[in-house]
Design a protein that fits this description.
Length: 159
């Protein structure tokens, strides 16, 4: 039998909605950095560097999504790995395309063109799409966290 606290945590986990607070927490330590980056400096950041940042932001978002209800660490790992692999990132990008603005589509294009190397297990198109998503996430993390949150909420992560 579950305690009242466990039941409450489980119920909260089922109804956990990711809002802009996750982004505020992430930017608390690096907020000064993103505020100091001018538009000219942002244009100098390579799509590969944006993808590097976006990969970390995306994985943290997915980890926070699966945090509730509490589970074994092996379960967390399995759930997160299933969502952060290139095939799922490519699928997520395709689901977001209709919702993207023109400037965001340009960032996606830059990310796709920057994806040169690839793991052997993933086909080039899938790898390019995954890198494009990561590039977009990195860019939005630095420029418009509210928009990033809006787009990430559209992803269909499986509980």
């Amino acid at each position: 039998m579950k305690s009242k606290e466990e039941k409450l945590l489980h119920e909260q986990g089922e109804h956990l909605q990711v809002d802009s607070s996750w982004c505020q927490v992430m930017q608390a330590a690096t907020g000064h950095l993103s505020q100091q980056i001018s538009q000219a400096q942002l244009q100098q950041i390579s799509p590969t560097a944006l993808a590097y940042l976006g990969d970390a932001v995306y994985e943290l978002f997915v980890r926070m999504f699966y945090l509730m209800p509490p589970q074994r660490s092996e379960t967390y790992h399995r759930l997160v790995v299933a969502q952060v692999k290139a095939e799922m990132q490519a699928l997520h990008l395709r689901s977001l395309i209709p919702h993207l603005q023109q400037n965001e589509l340009e960032i996606v294009r830059r990310g796709r063109n920057a994806a040169t190397g690839r793991p052997k297990r993933v086909d080039p198109d899938t790898y390019q799409q995954a890198t494009s998503l990561e590039t977009l996430i990195g860019y939005l993390y630095l420029t418009d966290c509210q928009r990033l949150t809006e787009l990430l909420q559209k992803l269909q992560l499986e509980k």
